[in-house]
Every structure is written in C-alpha cells, then in structure tokens.
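Tutorial sheet, problem 5. The two components below are modelled jointly, 1246 residues in total.
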Amino acid sequence: MDYFQGKILYMAEPKMMFSVSHKTAFVVDHCPYMAESSRQQVECDVLTKNRAQGVIPLAPVSKSLWTCAVECSMEYCRILYDVYPTNKLVNYIVSDSEFHVLNSWRQGDQSTQELMSALAAVGPPNPREDPECCSVLHGLVAAVESLCKITELQHETRTTLMDTAERVANRGRIICLTNAKSDTHVRMLEDYVQETILEQNKLAAGSDRLMAIQQCELVLVHIYPQGEDTLVSDRTKKEVSHLLTSEVHSVRAGRHLASKLNVLVQQHFDLASTTITNIPMKEEQHANTSANYDVELLHHKDAHLEFFKSGDLHMAGSTSRDSGLKETVTLKWCTPRTNSIELHYCTGAYRISPTDVNSRPSSCLTNFLLNGRSVLLEQPRKSGSKVISHMLSSHGGEIFLHVLNSTRSTLEDPPSISEGCGGRVTDYRITDFGEFMRENRLTPVPESQFADLSEKSPVERAKAQLERYTRYWPMIISQTTIFNMQAVVPLANLIVKENLSEEDVLTCQKTVYNLVEMERKNDPLPISTVGSRGKGPKRDEQYRIMWNELETLVKTHVGGSEKHQRVLDCISACRKPPEEEDRKKRGRKRDDKEDRLEKNGNKEADDKSWQESERLKGSIEREKEEQESEVIKDSPDSPEPLNKKPRLTSEDIQPPEKPKGPVSLLTMWTNRITAANSRKHQEFAGRISSVNNKAELYQHLNEENGFDLTLVIFVWESICTSIILSFKGNLIYE
Amino acid sequence: MPTVVLMDVSLSMTRPVSLDGSEEFQRKNLAVHGLTMLFEHMATNYRLEFTSLVAFSSLWELLVPFTRDYNSLQEALSNLEDYDKTCLESALQGVNNVVQQEWGSGCPCQVVLVTDGSLGIGKGSLRHSLQTLKNRSEDKKFPLPFPFPAKLFVMCIANAEELQTTDTMDNLEQLLSLNRGEGQIFTMEGPLCLKSVQAMFGRLIDQAYSPFHAVLRCGNLSSDVQVFPRPEPVIVDEEVDPMPRTVQTDLEIVGFIEIGDISSPPVISRHLVLPIAVNKEADEIGTSNTDEAEEETSANQMAGKSPNFCVLLHGSLKVEGMVALVQLGPEWYGMLYSQADSKKKSNLMMSLFEPGPEPLPWLGKVSQLGPISDALENPYGEDDSKSPFPVQPKIKRSYSQNVTVWIKASGLQTDVQKILRNARKLPEKTQTFYKELNRLRKAALAFGFWELLKGVAELLERECTLLPDNAHPDAAFQLSHAAQQLKLASTGDSQYAAFDHNIAPMHTDFSS
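Model answer (structure tokens):
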C-alpha cells in the first residue's frame, strides 16, 4: 500500500476512471436446483416469556439457495451504491431457460429499489421446470453482451474527447452466483465466457453504441447447501487470456456467502472497514443507564491511508475477524462532540455504509449523524496519548468519514495578520463587509433554469454581482460619509442592483429628498475628523463632501441604465450648487494635490484628499471614453451648471470659463449629455456671438429664468410639490 | 513544504577544486557557499519554510532539527566535519525517519541532497543499493519512494561531463525515477568555482523556492498577496487526460458561504495568504538619502497603515463565521477563511479543494452556485433561519431509507416481531401493522422467500386464535385478512404478488 492510491497525486499515474469496477454484471442462476433449500434455518417465531404456554411455535423457515444468492447480491449492491452513488454501475441478469436483464447501465436504473422490484417480478426459480433447458450460460452470454454496451459516462467522455476517444477504456467484471457441478463445469463456463468475449468484440468493432471489452474479470461463486460437501474447489485469480481473468469461490449458502460477498465488495471497490467502539447508547428499558456499542462501517480505504503509510495500522487496533477474512480498524467514539461552526482541517471525506445497516446500534448511530450532529473519533495508541484522527458527519442525508490532520502543521506560528500590510488600520468597515458577504452568499441554482447557453452561468453571475457591489466600496470608516449614514442605506442597497424597478427609483429619490431635508435642517453628518486639524470641516463643507460621495457611488452604476441615470439626475438636481468663491479657492488647492496624488497612489495622509483622489481614479478609469473626448478641467466639488453648452461638433471643445481643478465625474457626464443634446438643437444666439469665455459664463448664469426653469422641470418629472418648495426654499435661502 | 538538506560530508567532499591562480577551495566549501546562498534567500523571501540539516557519510546525523532559524542552520553549516565514505541509502532512510517523526506521512517535503557525485563503492554505495533493489525483504526496502510526497533535488558539486564518465549520472537518474520522477538533478556548468555554484543554487531557488505572488480579488476590491507555501501543480488522476493544474495568480472570490454550510470540507492543501506591499515606487519622494534598512521599516510602517483588503476580508470572515469561495483556475476552487492558532493570532488562510466541477457533493456543482438575488425567495430566509445547503442527493442512501436486510437471522426476527407486536395492539396500531407487513411482504417477494410469507400468515392466524375475549372485534378481521393476503402473495400469482401492490387494511364496520 503506498500513497499513490491517494486521490490527488504529485505526478502522473492515472487512477482509472474506467477500471473494471466501472461496470459490474451480476449473473444469478435461476435454474430449478437453486430452489433447493440452503438448510440454514431461521427461527422467526421467537416467543416472549410472558406469552401463553402451550402455544406451539412455528416451524423455522429456511431460505432457498436462490434467496441466499439474491439477498447477498443485493447487500453487495447496497454497499456499493452507498459508497459510490455514481459511475460504479451494476447490470443485474438472471438466467434460467433464457436470460432476463433486470436493469440497464443507465444511472437512473442504479438503485436497490429498482432491482428489488425487478427481482420480485422474476420470483423464485420454478422447481418443476425442465433442468435440461436451464443454464447459467444464457446469463453469462448476456453479461458479456452487456459489458460491450456503452455507459452514459463512457459516451459522454468519448464525445468530449472527440479525436482521442479511443482512450476511453472498456473493462468490466462479471460476478456469477451459481451452483456448479464440478471443476470441469467451471472450466467450461470460463471457456464459454472467453469465446463469447471474442465473438462480441468482433461485433462491437463495427458498432457505434458498442465497445470491445479490453479486460474482463470473471468471479464465479459456487453456492452449495449447508451440510453438503463442495464439488468445486476454490481457485485464486488466474489469467484465462489477456482479456479474461477468472477466480472461483466455493461457499456455503447463508452467512458464509454473505461474508464472502462482503469481502468481495471491499476488494472490488477498494473499501476498508472501520469499527467505531464505545458508542454510548441509552437502553430503552433503563433510560438512565447507557451501554457502549460497536458499529462497523465500510468506506474507501483511503480513509486509512495515514495508518497504512505510517505503519500504524496495528497500533490503530486492527483486528482480524471471520477467520482472517476481514480486517477492521478500530476508532473510539470521542466526547465532547464537535460543533458545526468549527472548521476542521480535513484531508479527505469518504462516504460510508454500515455493514449491518438495520441493526439497532447501526441505525442509532446513523440517525444520530443524520440529525446533523458530528462525532470526533480517536485513534487508540499504545502510548496512551489521545489523537483525534477522524470525524463522522452527515451532509444532505449522506454520512461521510472525514480524515482529520493529526500531525504537526507546517503553518504553525505564522505572523499575525495585524503585523502585516494594513494590519495597523483600526477602522475597517468589518460589520458592513459582513453585511456585504451575507448579501453575496451563494445558493445552488437548478440546472434547467439556465439551460440557455447564451445565459451566464450562475457562478459568473455571482462574480458579476460582486463586481457591481464593489464599484464604490471604501474599506475604512474614515474614508466614507455616506456609508456611515442610516439615511443613505435605502439608496445604497438598491443602487447596486443590476436592474432597478420604478419603485426602486422612487425609493432612491426619496432618499435623496430626505438628505436635502437634512441639509435644510442643518443636521450634523458623521464626517470623520481623523487626520484633519481642529474640529473638522464646517457643516456645509460636510454636506458638499457627502453629496460628492453619493454622486460617485451612483455614477459608477449609471453605465447605460436609464433608471440609474434618473437617480443620478435627481441627485444632481437636488444638491446645493456650491458657492463660487469657495469653489475657486478649493479648486486651485486641490489641483496641486491632485498632481502629487496621481503619483503617490493612495499614500496621501490627508484622508479627505485621499478619498477624493481615490474616487477620481476610479471614475477616471470607468469613464475613460468621456475623458478622451473632453478634457475639461473642473473642480470636483462643483456640479456643472445645468445649462446646455451648444456646439455642433465635439472636436472644438476648449476648457472654457471654469476655474482650474480636477475633472469631476459629473462634469464629464454632463458634458457628454450636453454634447449629445447640443447636436439636437440650435445654438443659443448669445453663445454664437460670444468671444470671451468668462463673460459667456456669467451671461448665462445671469439668465436666472432659464436656469430656474430647467431645474423645476427636472424636479417636476418625478416629485411631489413639497420637495420643490423646499428646494426653492434653498435657492431663496442662498 | 518542509525542506531537508542532506549534506554529503564524506571524505571525497574535501577534494580540492583545481583553480589556476586564485585561492584553493574544497568541494565542501563550494557546497557550503551554495547552501549559504539558499539559506539567505529563504531567510528573506521564504522565511516560513521549516528546514532541517542532515549530514551523512556512512552514518547520518540530524544536525539541525526543523527550524525557521536560519542562523542556526548557517552555524551548523560552518561547523561541518569530515567523515568517511558515502552511503546514501541509510541517509535517505534517515530523512524518511526525520520527516515522518515531525510531519507524519501526508505532508509533502523537499529534499535537497548536496553531494560531489562520488556515491561510494561496494556495499552501501548507491550502485550497490540500486542493483539489489529487487531482491529485498519487506523490512529492508529501499527508502524511495518515501511514504510522504517528496521532491528530490540533487545538487552535484561537479559538472555533468565529470559525472557522465562514471555511472553516477545513471544512478542518480535511477534514484530520481524511484522517487516517481519528482525532483531534478542539478550540475554545475563550466569550471567548479563560486560563481558556478551560485548559478546552480540560483536555478534551484527559481525552481523550488520562489515565492508565489498573486492578486486576491473580490469584484473591484483587491490586494496583492503572497501564498505560502507555494501551491504546487496538482495532477488529477483521471485516466483519460492527466493534466497538471496550477493555481492561477489571479485569485477571484466567487461568493460567500457559512462555515456550517461548507462544513469541514476535505482539502488537498492549506496555505497562508499574506498581504504584501508591491508598489514601492510610490514612496520614493524625498527618501533618497536614507539608509536602506530604515527605508524598509518606514515602508513597512506605511504598508501597515494603509488599508488592505485582506485585513478587511479576514476580519469580516472571522466575525461572521463564513468562508469565501475562491476560484483558482478553470473548474478549480478553494476557500478563504480566518484561522486562529493557539496563541490567538489569526490569519487569512486558503485551502484548496480537489480540482473538478464538483469538489464537495454537499455544495453541488460550483458552476451552478449563483447569487441569492437570483432566487425568487431568499434561500436563507429573511431572518437567516434557513439554508439552501446541503444539496440533497437524488437517491437516499441505504441507512436513510429503512431497507430490509435479513442476512442475519436477527434482522428477520426483528421484522417479524414488529408485525406481531403491532398485531396485538389492533385496531389502534392498524396503520403501523400494515406498514410493517407490507415492508416484509415486499422484501420476501424480491428475495423469492415465499416460505416466509406462508409462515407469517400462519403466525397471524395463530394470533387471531389467541385474541383475548375483550379484544376489539376489528382485530380478528384484520388479522385474518392480512394472513389471507400474505398466503395469496406466496403463491406468486401475479394478481397478488405484485411488488408495488400494498395490502390495504380491511374496511370493516368497526373501523370507521
């Protein structure tokens, strides 16, 4: 046993997807002699003590060879399906005077329920049928034919591989449960299978839906009644030809057959056994005492990899049972239990199947786990030290044996995150990002819903949502004003949506009016004073910062969406136009800073400027197109007056009339709109006749009527009168 | 990935290197020079790596156990003594012991073997070891391949021509193939001198000790990070197309999942995600004359003070008890989470899932995980009381569907007793009685166990006769009805023995 059988390897040594265990054909003999009794008697009338005396108990019943074969093969399938729900397929064939194929390789046919139903239809062998025309050979032929049939997985893989399709292998196993006459009879069966494979391979060569068999493992299980001597001798695997290997197991019906098939399923599917010991269980009769039980589980043997590799297997409590046929590793139930919020370092998880599925201790354990609880398991060591090596846990009705790492970690004692980059910043928006994470949780989307190929896959949509949600996302509290304001929450939550409804737009607009109202009332804002001298900015400066930030947020989402644009328009229309003086002064100052900031990236200490330059960087990136066509420098704080700048082409734009300063997004946006609009209307007479830029601006600003009117129209589009009033009030107040 | 440096201290390492003009070196000096360079590199760029130093000749000795203290390694290197002949096999066995004792057998390691290429003569030589490879008993097996995944780097203080004149190169190549081809043989190019030994160790550093830098992204938020230890290429063991997969340098977060939902998933490796400051040009202004060390500390302080996405992410993951699902490549995912050690230091950690479209059955296909806003109704519920995970498999496993197994007699007895127990409590237990009866009937039909049906029918008839006088009259009716139905089924008559047919309770005047 070496680590090479691990699931992930550090070099190429393919574990075969299409190994012999991909396809298993069961051939069960249904000839009259199988109706014979196994002579193993079962007492099913167990009389309880307090029952009336004198009652004659029912005679014990005994299973036929057929019943034994069927129930043991079903047990084999049960374990197989528990551990490998997909891609390990069984084709069940019954043989008497002809063959009956009970299911197909289709994944949908792979369940014990399906098989049980089909078996019930077949019924027990008819002892009165003519033994001469009955034979297991019919079934063996059918099994070979069936192995040539392509499975869904083989088909899919071949289709996806196209030109290298020949690399998809076709191997399989035939398990034949029969009652053979002699060793010669067994040899005859082997030869027959060999011939059939050759025949079928010829047929398969000329067919699209068939594949030639490259390797076949024949496992013949000779079943004979208890108390009889076997006429067939056991034989280990031998090579009949390069295509076929064969082995013979001669077993008595009943529990010997059951344990033989249990061993076989483990061999065939790389399983191993773990016995959980010391499981405390309450007794029904004595509720306050508990006794300890053991439960044996089967699972992929990789769950024991660490034991095998370290040679710890014996120390781990490996015991041999059933005369050395079966090995199991003992792990001890561990209290206290673990909770689900803990993330264990787990190196593997393997599906389990209880060996004795409906025994009381087994079902007790499985129900306990299925109810969502997990159990840690301890590896008994001779030194007496306690090492937790495994965990049992269920996920979605499936129980897994998790392998936990129990050795020293190479990552111990790492530098704490607080010592690294960004580690000394203390005002991260941890709670807000937590909220962000909750909104960006994932959920499984049913596949059919997105069958359309043009549609983005759900995971791509999840990424797109993250992109939208983070277009403007300041990481620290002192970098933001709006995200510290309860009043902005409704807008901030909605604006990130891909599509806004009418109702959403209204909510956003209401948020904006609410802010206008706050500004009118001169409510204080949660502006950070970190890094600024004195008391921080004045109230109207605070609002200016807030409005800028809000605009930045909304602008990042406008891109082509008319509804988002309406929200932006609303903000532009509602915010207070800044004072001319202040604007000039600040504009110049910021200009200097800007130059430096562009070089320095975000290292600027003054957090306010940082903040703005950061926004600008983002906005500049996103609106490069606009920037390329219009290099207008304007103060970031001042929204462009809402006049239309008429011109016919966009080439002749000159940075007009404005004081120097960095370009605000709004400016760029407005300019773009203006440019577009200007092509649609006649130039103002005043503009055409103008010579001096500055003069032009004042001329237009002085045209109070026109300006006011535009605003009113803007607002009227979507709002109630009271707001207009308050807005007008603002104008008057100014 | 811990490193074991396996240093050849046999006498042949003291052979002088013929150099015209300059001072005389031994091969050992060149080896020490190369290793010093490696240790210096690790101390600055790879300092979380655990390294140990083993010296060997005919015996082996662990000079420095696994440590991150590169000074102690350096010191041990300068105190090396010279011994007798080279015996590689026992030294490799030593490496095996040292590694397994410290890290168990699941932890991938790198072994750097430094030798002059004269690998001994006679018994104990590599040649002898390789020749006797096939006829060994189980307890004297050659130590390669190691039980743990290992890369073997052979640093030859000799040039290729020299090694090819003997069979040394062949032997080393065979050694490497015993290690499943994992690793590489490095030889010196040109004359044996400090420069060429530096070049050789430089190639080793590029190959195995270059830090893995990546960008961690969540939409527009991002951070430059170092992932430690470097994620190694992974080969998925598929028969059809085994392609090594490498982790891409763009680590893109896909979304978030609660720890309880991801539920201790199996991972192939774990890595620290350490934010790094890459943009050093940014603070060039005015610091031209300061001391280099000072500049570094001030740069570190600056980096400490400017907000970093990793720290934000780590903080929120920790507080919320969530993990971030991160895409590592096409159809390959991992998770980011906060990991605290015993000293309450916590860190951002990344675990890699097995490559493939569906690494965890309980999440379903990762490509089918979408944003909750796609769902009509929030799958987590308005108050976070629900979860869309785990994804339920289509078919239930045997232990959750009440299967019938009668392999042990006790299984059959229990099922029969259950029916009898309910039979004695008719008519109250009518529903359970028929449920158990039908379960038994189905199994008996599937197993072709008609004898059992007859037997149970007889048992029910007997129960009927044993009913006490005060029994409800319905009980007798139901019992004889059930017995009769079982008998009919046991004839195999398709009308009564259909698998999907259920025996329904008899409708009597009493039952209403």
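Marking note: Confidence is low (pLDDT under 50) at residues 280-293 of chain B. Full credit if you identified this.
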